Amino acid sequence: MLDREIILTPEGHRRLKDEIDYLSTKKREEVAERIKESRYFGDITENSEYDDAKNEQAMLEQRIYALEEKIRSAIVIDAKSVKTDTVGVGTKVTLQDMQKGDVLQYSIVGSAEADPASHKLSNESPVGRAIIGRKPGDKVTVAVPQGSVKFKVLAIERA
């Protein structure tokens, strides 16, 4: 049971549903076939192939359950209702690193969709928390492991 709300973009919601669909169909079939084949390796009480396949099945079912729980407790933001006057989940924000001068662009997403390598920042990350509710022109200082970074919000648009 999840004890905090999960915020998803429509794209993130679709990806979770697609993953559940894949795991519930193709992956389940693959694991069931692996269990079936492992039974031919001999006595299942001393069969490591069978044990591995059953462990994979348990992990698969656990993953499916966790994803279904996320979907059940998710709040899917309506892309059309995303406001661009302040930074929020569902927006794409352009920031300038005040020390280096670099211009960065990030989509703000819920924690379930965060992927910094793809420029998707969680609203719960240090930078995400610092810029939520900010407007173009606002400056923020963010505590990061290496010290602190100062950003200026340059622009906000729908992600």
Ranges where pLDDT stays below 50 over 5 or more residues in a row are none
User: What structural class do helix, strand and pairing data support?
Assistant: alpha/beta
Helical content band: 25-40%
Strand order of the largest sheet: 5-4-3-7-6
Can you tell me the overall shape? elongated
Strands, total number: 7
Describe the structure concisely for a colleague.
The protein is α/β, with parallel strands linked by helices and 159 residues long. The protein is built from three helices and seven strands. The chain folds into two domains: 6-76, Helix Hairpins; 80-158, Roll (Chitinase A, domain 3).
Can you tell me about this structure?
This protein is of the alpha/beta class and 159 residues long. It folds into two domains: 6-76, Helix Hairpins (Orthogonal Bundle); 80-158, Chitinase A, domain 3. The protein has helices spanning 10-38, 48-73, 126-131; strands at 6-8, 74-76, 91-97, 103-109, 120-122, 139-144, 147-158. The strands form two sheets. Strands 5-4-3-7-6 form a five-stranded mixed sheet. A two-stranded parallel sheet has the order 1-2. Strand 6 and strand 7 (147-158) form a beta hairpin. Helix 1 packs antiparallel against helix 2. The model has no long low-confidence stretch (mean pLDDT 90).
